[in-house]
Amino acid sequence: MEARYRKTLLLKDTGALDRTKEFFNLFLERLREEGLQEEVQVVRAGDLGMYGYGLVVKILPDEYTYVNVEAKDVPKIVQTSLKKSNPVQDLLYTPREKQMRVVLKNCGEVDPESVDDYILHGGYGALKKVLTEFTPEQVIDELKTSGLRGRGGGGFPTWMKWNFARKVEAAEKYIICNGDEGDPGAYMDRSVLEGDPHAVLEGMIIAGYTVGASKGFLYIRAEYPLAIERIQRAIAQAQDYGLLGGNILGTEFQFDLEIRLGAGAFVCGEETALIASVEGKRGYPSPRPPYPSVKGLWGMPTVINNVETLANIPVIFDRGGAWFSGIGSQTAKGTKVFALTGKVKNSGLIEVPMGITLREIVYEIGGGLSEGKKLKAVQTGGPSGGVIPDKFLDTPVDYEHLMELGSIMGSGGMIVIDEEDCMVDIAKFYLNFCVDEACGKCSPGRIGTFQMRNYLQKISSGQAGEDDLDKLEAICRATKKAALCGLGQTAPNPTLSTLRFFREEYLEHIRERRCRAGKCIDLLRYKIKQEKCKRCGVCAMHCPVNAISGSREEGYRIDVEKCVKCGQCFEVCKFDAVTRE
Amino acid sequence: MAKLTHQSLDSFRRELEENKGDWIKVGMSTCGIAAGADEVYRVINEEVQKRGLAVRVEKCGCAGMCYAEPLVEVCVEGVPRSVYGKVDKDTALKIVDKHVSGKRLVNDHVFNVKVK
Amino acid sequence: MRNKVLLIDDDPDFIEATQVLLEANGYEVVNATNGKEGFQKVRSESPDLILLDLMLSYKTEGAETAKTISQDAATKDIPVILITGARKGMDLPFELKAGTEALPVKAIVEKPVRPDALLKLIRTYIVQTGESHRRVVQQIQTLVERWRDKPGNLVMILHEIQNHYGYVPRGISFELSRLLGIPLARIYEVITFYNFFKLDEPGKYVISVCMGTACYLKGAPQVLEELKKVLSVGEGQTTADGLFHLQVVRCLGCCGLAPVITVNEKVFPKVRKNQVMDIVSQFVKKEHAQNEKEA
């Protein structure tokens, strides 16, 4: 059909003042004067994914982007780019796309409930290529070229995992997709499972062909009902189309998939524990070696890959291992999906090439911090990771660099922390999580985490001495060395890392009994500032424990002994007369 | 459905390509649904049917911009392909009325445009 | 389908109060005022459970009725809960103890009866025997057959059971142990390991507060405190009326909308402390409207 407008102009103010409406009218007026109002549509955009560039104008279909546009530029733009189709050189900006969609290329693009739509977007082309053109050895070689490493946290080279399992002679072998995304603050796997289920299936089928497995399991958290439903449907569709089952795509190869549900145990993200859970048992980890690639599910060689790793497989075979290894840094190839959350303006799922800096992620993709707050640190790797303070924001994001800073890449949670957050409190949050989730099998994991939490509790309630810090560190080191599984060994990481970079905050809690962020309730003191108090008595009325005494004549006081620090008075005072420190 | 083979996969894809017309996609992952995408999906579907428009309404996964959910993407011949963010019921109606029928973009909700 | 409870008692006030309580909790109630009428109703109504008063027209009439029920082949599997008034100084010709030859009942409850205790007892015994029990056994059988040949099936079977009941009732675990031929301890070992499985019936509306890192930083603890205050329950507890169950969950995966709470399937994004009351009352109102409609 004929287009109604010859051109479209999008505009949005990305600076501090919102002049979008003002410029909208300026452009309209100018277009009318030029008699172009029927040829160009002017549109106020909601957001253009650029921040701090003043007024931004985008012109379609020419794809010119102009930044820091002022009122005086309006006639020039109309004349040069709208009447004609030339760029205004001095305003032109070429947006450098920070994000790169490899794993998420289909998320938001393909209908996850339709196998046809996946095929329409090139789906199962990689499978066809592998089944008809590659021997299993060649698949391994191609993966080796690609440099793909596991996206679940450890970063183990995927080709090695597959190769171990391929080489073992066994009656049966298994492929497991680890979709037990338990890190608080991470939801990459959910998005991939919900948004592009067939890509995960395709990756698993290719893995099955390579290692010689005929059966696979998708282990998914029960807390993700939509992901389960969509995977279930995808499996049925794939079976229907001859992409699963016997004679896949008319070849000799046979492979089938089933879903197994997690049941809310964080430890099941650890591969040996996950295997126990798929076997229908308690999800206890077991010592490695033997590694699952050699002796895994029901004692058979088993490849366990994380959702994101598997979703990388089809695109690697579509575009070649060499193409893939061209993305990313020296030691880490390809892209990584992160769940960027916390005190950042634009929370969301992002996919970036490995080696990008944290600064680029937080400020250029995430749009900086909300409400002009100051960044204190970025947390990666969830309960197994650590914090990276603002002075290291220019660190490239890859496995080795994050490790050097005492954190890990992890599965992809990335949480922005600002000055209103207390580091002791954050360490305590992660330890509470670990204490809750400790499976109880080994004593370092069970007792070590519990004792660490007790020390943190002591510090945050102002009852600790400086020697407690040494004790805390000693327990951290012992747990790191002695715990049975990866989760126990990494549980001290958030504490160690906050101690390393924010020791002064710990010392403040201990020496001055002060929490600068105002998060540690036991250290708070509420007070009424007499010069600001209007003696309305509202605070006294709201105090649940009658800790505020006085009258309209004499003024009001808070009895520190009685006060339970609920903060009611602080909230109800209209005159900011109640202070909290 | 007959089983696909490695010989028939590509011709099947071509067949799908030929039948692909205009479409609207609503981001229907957990985050989208939490922000109200199911109602948006329903409203758009009803409105498209009521007007008898030749446009397919589909679901899609999360595009990553959680802060802007619910997200609706529209690809209609003759208008730049656009992603709308923070779409509520009213905006959903506007999208069908202005973008699909009227061939013009809706103000204040465009989050991204794709030229391809 | 609703479970049927037969109430045999000669005190009309007690009958009325108990009937209201049981009906409000989804049971169908029939009643009788003496042993003879009671036994007739046991046969004609085939209830799933019987609440039987010990002292009817004479002080051992209840005990005798229980015996009659237990000796009849058609009724012997129906669980009986005995209710009794003053315990001391009754001078009974037998010991007041459940499960004896003289008192073939499942449990003994003293008056005044605490509603929650009574409801819990009923729930405990009703699934193990009675008409509904046979249906349950059948369902479990089909379920087990479907999974029998698949190794590692236990977790998946428990998921299906919890999906159906909202928790894993004890009686069903017994049945499962029999059908799968595995010890009960094996089943409980698995249930108690995983946070997701519940052993008690949760409230009608399960409120889950996300404690993922993003939600934690953005104020989930304050929302949780407010919920505790509004509902007067602690974490992992159910309100006295059985309407709300409050729980904390690990990351619902909607970090962009933090802090998030869910009430059953419905997700509430970016919840502020002062919205909590509104959210809760929304469901209370819904419940009232439904009750009125039914009445």
Q: Keywords, please?
A:
heterotrimer, A: 581 residues, alpha/beta, Glutaredoxin, Rossmann fold, Ubiquitin-like (UB roll), 5 domains, five-stranded mixed beta sheet, four-stranded mixed beta sheet, 22 helices, 17 strands, 15% strand, flat, C: 295 residues, 3 domains, five-stranded parallel beta sheet, 11 helices, globular
Overall domain count of chain C? 3
Q: Provide the residue-averaged pLDDT of chain B.
A: 89
Q: Give the total of domains of chain B.
A: 1
CATH class placement of chain B: Alpha Beta
What count of helical segments of chain C does DSSP give?
11
Q: Name the shape of chain C in a single word.
A: globular
Radius of gyration of chain B: 15 Å
How can the largest sheet of chain C be summarized? 5 strands, parallel
Q: What structural class is derived from the secondary structure elements of chain C?
A: alpha/beta
Q: CATH H level of the largest domain in chain C: which superfamily?
A: Response regulator
CATH class of the largest domain in chain C: Alpha Beta
Q: In what order do the strands lie side by side in the largest sheet of chain C?
A: 2-1-3-4-5
Order of helices and strands of chain C: EHEHEHEEHHHHHEHHEEEEH
Level of helix content of chain B? 25-40%
Number of E-type strands of chain C: 10
Structural class of chain B: alpha+beta
Give the end-to-end Cα distance of chain B, rounded to a whole number of Å.
Answer: 32 Å
Structure characterization notes:
The complex is a heterotrimer of chains A (581), B (116) and C (295). Chain A has helices at 20-34, 74-83, 115-120, 125-133, 136-146, 158-167, 188-195, 197-211, 225-240, 271-278, 307-319, 321-325, 358-365, 399-404, 423-437, 443-460, 467-482, 486-490, 493-501, 503-512, 538-542, 568-572; strands at residues 7-13, 40-44, 55-60, 64-66, 174-179, 215-220, 256-261, 302-306, 335-342, 348-353, 375-380, 386-389, 413-418, 526-528, 548-551, 555-558, 578-580. Helices cover 38% and strands 15% of the residues of chain A. In chain A, strand 11 (375-380) and strand 12 form a beta hairpin. By secondary structure, chain A is of the alpha/beta class. Chain B is α+β, with helices and mostly antiparallel strands and 116 residues long. Chain B has one domain (21-114): 3-Layer(aba) Sandwich (Glutaredoxin), CATH 3.40.30.10. Chain B is built from four helices and five strands. In chain B, strands 2-1-3-4-5 form a five-stranded mixed sheet, covered by helices on one side. In chain B, helix 3 runs parallel beside helix 4. The mean pLDDT of chain B is 89. With 295 residues, chain C is α/β, with parallel strands linked by helices. In chain C, helix 3 (61-71) links the parallel strand 3 (49-53) and strand 4. The radius of gyration of chain C is 22 Å and the shape is globular. Chains in contact: A-B, A-C, B-C.
